[in-house]
Specification:
The complex is a heterodimer.
Chain A: E1 7-12, H1 24-32, E2 37-43, H2 49-61, E3 66-71, H3 74-87, E4 95-99, H4 101-105, H5 111-130, E5 138-141, E6 145-149, H6 153-164, E7 168-172, E8 187-188, E9 193-194, H7 195-208, E10 212-215, E11 218-226, E12 229-237, H8 250-254, E13 258-260, E14 269-271, E15 273-274, E16 286-287, H9 303-307, E17 320-327, E18 329-332, E19 336-338, E20 355-357, H10 358-365, E21 386-393, H11 412-426, E22 431-436, H12 446-455, E23 459-462, E24 465-470, E25 476-482, E26 487-493, E27 495-500, E28 502-504, H13 508-515, E29 542-544, H14 554-574, E30 576-579, E31 584-586, H15 596-600, E32 606-609, E33 611-614, H16 624-628, E34 634-636, H17 641-651, E35 660-665, H18 669-678, E36 687-692, H19 700-708, E37 713-717, H20 729-747, E38 754-756, H21 764-778, H22 786-806
Parallel strand pairs in A: 1-2, 1-3, 3-4, 6-7, 6-18, 7-10, 18-29, 20-27, 21-22, 21-27, 22-23, 35-36, 35-37, 37-38
Antiparallel strand pairs in A: 5-30, 8-9, 11-12, 12-17, 13-14, 15-16, 19-28, 24-25, 25-26, 31-34, 32-33
Chain B: H1 7-18, H2 30-34, H3 44-53, H4 64-67, H5 73-77, H6 84-96, H7 110-115, H8 118-128
Helix pairs in contact in B: 1-6
């Protein structure tokens, strides 16, 4: 590459879309005079085949080494022209795309102002283009080893899908047996088929699949690395029973230790050697070492060994073994757990014998239940005739002190309706009443089941009980208001069932920390995009399946599991992952190893050993680290400090006081500005938009530079709080904003010259509104005295030093 | 029956006096179901809130806020943390505060003033004066 860049500029008319409001030819002539521009042309349709050819010929003949296209939004045609670059033998990162349609011609009526703006935007583009560098994209090999965390229905479905496609799968399950919550259920809605009957064949397939290795009784201790190169340490508790076990069950007859059976929700007892249900997988029994009488190297009880014909019991196994697995992709399917209603004192769960949960009911009527499927009530084992259900227990409540959750758990309505029908079929004269606030029967076949229950005589009463009282005969009285009739009720029931919701697993925080995948405020894992990337974790190579990402039923969990498997196999099938070169770059001689970058990185992509190091495969390029670094020791590839400064300078070359520099995030506010264009929402022509990947990239220096160059105002436009594409960029942007506000206030600069407004990708109107607001103010502001700005700079430097000291 | 206050004004005033967002109510019915005096009330707490959401000024004629003993049972159990007792209190205040002072301290004989408990003074002045 020659020392002086050779830039080609192409300004598109877009038919009349741009040319109607912008003097395209004049802009092209203007661009011709800019530093480094060798050739500047206007084109009727730059994206057309002949135009593309012309650009390619220019690149060859004029020996261009950079290209600036001023046309529509880069969302539309940046990929088109990147291809043109590559075809002409130039690196695609040497293209600069300037938006003069959505951000200019479509949102202004005044031709003169729109043309001035176009010229500014083009000169910003050329200034940036001068500093562009080409990058090779890193290719990361991705092998065929998958880790599925969690052996419930989601994990099982994902594992089978991938193993059938030819990949090698490890299922890590913390319990000794697979099956998760689904194994505990009796029937499944809306078809009322038996849960075990549909689950057991899946489990059996998993057990015998040559491509699947089950690590039961195991937990993940650490995860290091990135897609194609994860090192996962798994710690497995000994089972003390080998594969030779034939499930003859003689051991449980002689085992002297009896403990509450968690699989039956404590409604029955089990031995220290046990199996949860006959079809459980792995098929071998397991010994619960915590309750078994034997200690390491001390055998006090050998009863099970004595009766075991195949001699499958071996107490000499190591209590805990650790394995390191090399993994290419990871599927998180660790599930959720039912809400424990004990904190809701007025419903008496845990105090009144006959108040139980929907999950307890599942364990009572299931064919594998301790009663053999007969429904009895706990206090006297009598058959309940009058059963009352309370919906939304633990869900749709904002009482954090009772650990209740604001969200709808989605499954509880259908579970209660299903169980009501079970009661009706098992106890023909049973009367079931469901107290609810809203019934949500939204799925295929769900509404039909609801109707079936109504027709079968199940009563639905709108109005949750205020409380449940226990009577002397252990029956229960529900007291509340029938909201439809506006009458009070006080009705007696033999059995009360609390329809409990789902909540995040107790160890979801640990798993989130291990894998670097963030959780939402409810503790569920966050998807890369809630609608368009609903099974990808934000980190490449990690996927989510089932209730770990929020309450779901079996059908929805299966859908997500299969989708996650498909996404994982896509990466592995290609065998290589091409990483965009938009990553952080450490300037080592400036790095003091303060670790601030390590803390702010949402992707665990930075580790500090003396100096910071970036794991490029993990870096998403948000630039939060670069903005947070107190030593300016981090720069972002393709969005360098120098490039951004050059854009600011170019934007403010003339009449700077009229202009508002707008820092936008590509995923939200930049598109919000595009939306204003698409919807033709006219607004003041004062904005000069700088495209960043995330507003968290905005260094305080950028803002000060803009003010020093005389900018009327500066707007930071991140997403709304909590919606960041990079998880924490909006927080970073808001932190920098507050800091800058403080500094401006301290040195006596009108702080309202800097604004921050959350703009989502859909918010064209709010974007136009905020620009109008700022534009109306710029005329009121006087130039800022240089000494005040110098003081602001100084204050910023002091602040950065303080940061270092704190560390 | 005519009321001096429009639905919007009513809601605004209740929200201002009580500090509660009544629109977060799901109408689950737990409040009325928990109220020890619900059987005596014409509306009960749930319908009192529902009437307010609908902007019905008739709620000012309801006996519900007057029977409310501020026992806070509904407040404790409300899934959306609405302080229903505060809403009742707001309605009571609105009914009584008409810019007229119903009591004048000078009209109460000195002898009486000595005997009346302090809480009665506080309560009465709060409700019966502007």
């Amino acid at each position: 590459m020659s020392a002086e860049p050779r830039i080609g500029v192409y300004i598109c008319h877009c038919g009349t879309n741009i040319a109607e409001t912008v003097d395209v030819q004049g802009t092209a002539e203007f661009a011709q005079e800019l530093d480094g521009v060798v050739i500047s042309k206007d084109m009727m349709y730059a994206c057309s085949g002949p135009s593309q050819q012309e650009i390619m010929e220019d690149i060859r003949e004029q020996k261009l080494d950079r290209v600036v296209i001023a046309a529509c939004t880069p969302r539309m045609h940046e990929p088109t022209f990147r291809d043109v670059m590559e075809q002409a033998g130039l690196n695609k990162y040497l293209l600069e795309f300037v938006n003069i349609r959505e951000h200019d011609s479509w949102v202004h009526d005044d031709r003169d102002a729109a043309t001035k703006k176009a010229k500014d935007l083009v000169s910003m583009g050329v200034a940036r283009a001068r500093l562009l560098r080409g990058y090779e994209e890193k290719e990361i090999p991705v092998g065929e080893e998958v880790l599925v965390l969690g052996g419930g229905i989601s994990g099982v479905q994902a594992a089978l899908e991938l193993a059938d496609a030819g990949y090698h799968v490890y299922i890590v399950e913390k319990e000794p047996f697979l099956g998760g919550a689904m194994a505990q259920l009796g029937l499944t809605y809306p078809t009322l088929d038996c849960s075990t009957c549909i689950l057991a064949p899946k489990l059996s397939q998993v057990e015998h699949h040559p491509g699947i290795e089950i690590l039961a009784n195991a937990t993940v201790e650490s995860v290091e690395g990135y897609v194609g190169n994860f090192t996962v340490t798994v710690s497995q508790k000994a089972r003390f029973v080998t594969d030779a076990c034939t499930s003859c069950d003689k051991c449980t007859e002689v085992c002297p230790v009896t403990v509450p059976n968690e699989f039956d929700e404590g409604l029955s007892k089990r031995k220290a050697i046990y199996k949860t249900f006959p079809q459980a997988v792995p098929a071998a029994y397991a010994i619960d070492y915590d309750t078994c009488l034997n200690e390491s190297n001390l055998l006090v009880c050998e009863r099970c060994m004595e009766v075991c014909e195949p001699q499958a019991i071996n107490f000499e196994m190591l209590r805990r073994t650790t394995r390191k697995l090399h993994i290419d992709t990871i599927i998180i399917a660790t599930g959720a757990k039912p809400y424990d209603p004990r904190p809701i004192a007025e419903y008496g769960y845990g105090r009144y014998d006959n108040v139980i949960t929907t999950l307890d009911i599942e364990r009572i009527y299931a064919p594998t239940s301790p009663t053999g499927g007969d429904i009895i009530r706990p206090s006297d084992r009598a058959t309940p005739k009058k059963i009352g259900y309370v919906q939304c227990v633990g869900s749709r409540k904002s009482n954090p002190e009772l650990h209740q959750h604001p969200y709808c758990s989605r499954i509880c309505c259908m579970i209660s309706i299903k169980q009501a029908l079970v009661f009706k079929s098992k106890i023909p004269d049973a009367q079931v009443t469901i107290y609810y606030m809203d019934i949500r029967s939204y799925g295929k076949g769900y509404e039909e089941l609801y109707e079936r229950a109504r027709r079968a005589g199940v009563r639905f009463i709108r109005g949750l009980p205020g409380e449940i009282r226990e009577n002397a005969d252990k029956s229960l009285t529900f007291i509340g208001e029938d909201a439809l009739l506006g009458e009070m009720y006080a009705e007696r029931y033999d059995l009360a069932v609390l329809s409990v919701g789902l909540e995040a697993q107790v160890d979801s925080r640990d798993i989130s920390t291990l894998l670097g995948v963030a959780r939402d405020t409810d503790g569920f894992f966050i998807e890369r995009h809630p609608k368009l990337e609903p099974v990808d974790a934000p980190t490449t190579g990690i996927f989510l399946a089932g209730t770990v990402a929020g309450p779901k039923d079996i059908r929805e969990s299966s859908i997500q599991a299969k989708a996650a498997a498909s996404r994982a196999s896509q990466l592995m099938r290609r065998g290589v992952f091409r990483k965009e070169a938009l990553t952080a770059e450490i300037i080592e001689e400036r790095c003091t190893g303060c670790k601030i970058c390590e803390e702010v990185c949402p992707y665990l992509a930075i580790s500090v050993n003396g100096v910071a190091q970036v794991t490029e495969a993990l870096c998403a390029g948000c630039g939060i680290c670069a903005a947070a670094c107190p030593e300016d020791a981090i720069d972002m590839r393709h969005y360098t400090d120098a490039q951004i400064m050059a854009q600011i300078d170019a934007a403010l070359r003339e009449r700077p006081s009229e202009k508002v520099i707008v820092f936008t995030s590509y995923w939200c506010s930049y598109s919000g500005a595009d939306m204003a264009g698409t919807a033709r929402i006219k607004h003041a022509p004062n904005a000069r938009i700088i495209r960043l990947l995330c507003c968290g990239r905005v260094k305080p220096e950028f803002v000060l530079r803009a003010l020093e160059k005389g900018a009327g105002g500066v707007l930071m436009a991140p997403c709304h709080p909590g919606e960041c594409h990079y998880d924490k960029g909006d927080q970073q942007a808001r932190t920098q904003y507050e800091l800058l506000k403080d500094i401006l206030r301290e040195v006596g600069i009108d702080e309202s010259r800097l604004a921050l407004e959350g703009i989502s990708a859909a918010e064209g109107k709010p974007f136009a509104g905020v620009i109008n607001k700022l534009a109306s103010k710029v005329t009121d502001w006087d130039p800022i005295p240089a000494e005040k700005l110098a003081m602001a700079r100084q204050r910023l430097q002091e602040h950065k030093k303080d940061l270092q000291k704190v560390v | 029956m005519e009321f001096e206050i429009s639905g919007d004004e009513l809601v605004k005033k209740v929200e201002e006096l009580s500090g509660q967002n009544i629109f977060s109510c799901y109408q689950c019915g737990i409040c009325t179901g928990s109220c020890p005096f619900a059987a005596e009330m014409d509306l009960g707490p749930r319908r009192m809130i529902a009437s307010l959401i609908e902007g019905r000024a008739e709620v000012l004629q309801s006996n519900t806020p007057w029977i409310c003993a501020s026992c806070f049972q509904c407040v404790v159990r409300c899934p959306n943390d609405i302080d229903i007792a505060a809403v009742s209190e707001a309605l009571r205040q609105m009914t009584q505060r008409k810019g007229i002072d119903h009591i004048d301290l000078s009209h109460i004989p000195a002898e009486e003033r000595k005997r009346i408990p302090q809480i009665a003074f506080v309560g009465n002045f709060r409700r019966m004066t502007r």
